[in-house]
Specification:
This protein is an alpha/beta fold. The chain is built from eleven helices and eight strands. Strands 3-2-1-4-5-6-7-8 form an eight-stranded mixed beta sheet, with helices on both faces. The longest helix is centred in the middle third of the chain and has 29 residues. The chain is globular and about 65 Å long. 40% of the residues are buried.
């Protein structure tokens, strides 16, 4: 039986949702709210996650630590954890659950293991837990995957993958590249249709000839707008991941630009 005390770095919708799900299954989850917003504090309060005073407490007292942060913060957060942990004796298992390229995962692996902790590569597929939905699947790869997979008994759907560090991240890149890429294409062409006066005709044609895809766009595109800012870095990680495929990195850098523009518009509307 593993020590049911989990550290959580990241108090966004996904992090607090997974933390709350584990708490509901009898796990003590600890996090720090240092530098976090009032909204983060409220999410953590509702989730029942225990708040501790700083990352060093998490690093020194939690046998397993989950990092669930925006992709562009993954390395920075890992380095902060490594500095807080360095010299620890518990051989903490640091699980990076972020949407990062395999090369980024290996960079983080080096930082974590140099500090004396252990590293596990993971990728989350699905949305945050909510009422009526148990939560996402967490694919994981690396030498300590069996230890992490024990959390399946406590509500977290861990899917072990055979292979070294980077395999889980590769799967996440491919999956996100498809779903968020298709969302980007639909968003861009619906905008072009609107600007050129054929939005209704396009909608009618898709409803007739592509009903499943049309319904998917109707569901996915509206929910993307408030999350677009989080997708920018993920698109750039996918571009890095796909660098060996001719033309693909340019495509995903384009999607990064699209989502950055949407995020900027959303911010402007929020401040208006």
């Amino acid at each position: 039986m593993m020590d049911l005390r989990i550290g959580l770095i990241g108090t966004g919708e996904m992090g607090s949702g997974i933390g709350g799900m584990l708490v509901a299954h009898g796990v003590e989850v600890r996090t720090s709210l240092h530098g976090r917003s009032a909204a983060s504090s409220e999410r953590i309060r509702r989730a029942g996650v225990t708040v501790v005073d700083g990352l060093d407490v998490i690093a020194r007292t939690c046998p397993v630590v989950l990092s669930i942060v925006p992709p562009d913060r993954a390395i920075e957060v890992a380095e902060e954890f490594a500095a807080a942990y360095r010299g620890g004796t518990e051989r903490t298992l640091y699980v990076d659950c972020n949407a990062i390229a395999p090369v980024t995962a290996r960079t983080i692996d080096a930082a974590i293991t140099a500090a004396g902790a252990r590293f596990l590569d993971a990728g989350i597929i699905g949305s945050a837990p909510r009422e009526g939905y148990d939560g996402p699947k967490v694919y994981a790869s690396g030498p300590d995957v069996a230890e992490f997979a024990r959390l399946t008994a406590y509500g977290l759907a861990v899917r072990p993958l055979e292979g070294p560090i980077g395999v889980a991240s590769a799967l996440k890149m491919c999956y996100g590249g498809i779903t968020k890429g298709v969302t980007g294409v639909g968003t861009a062409m619906r905008a072009c249709a609107e600007h050129n006066g054929v939005a209704d005709a396009l909608k009618a044609e898709f409803a007739e000839s592509q009903p499943a895809l049309n319904a998917w766009f109707d569901r996915q595109i509206p929910t993307m707008y408030p999350k677009a800012y989080r997708w920018v870095a993920e698109m750039r990680e996918i571009a890095t991941f796909a660098e060996a495929e001719a033309g693909v990195p340019t495509m995903y850098e384009g999607f990064a630009g699209l989502y950055a523009a949407i995020a900027e518009t959303m911010t402007a509307k929020g401040s208006a």
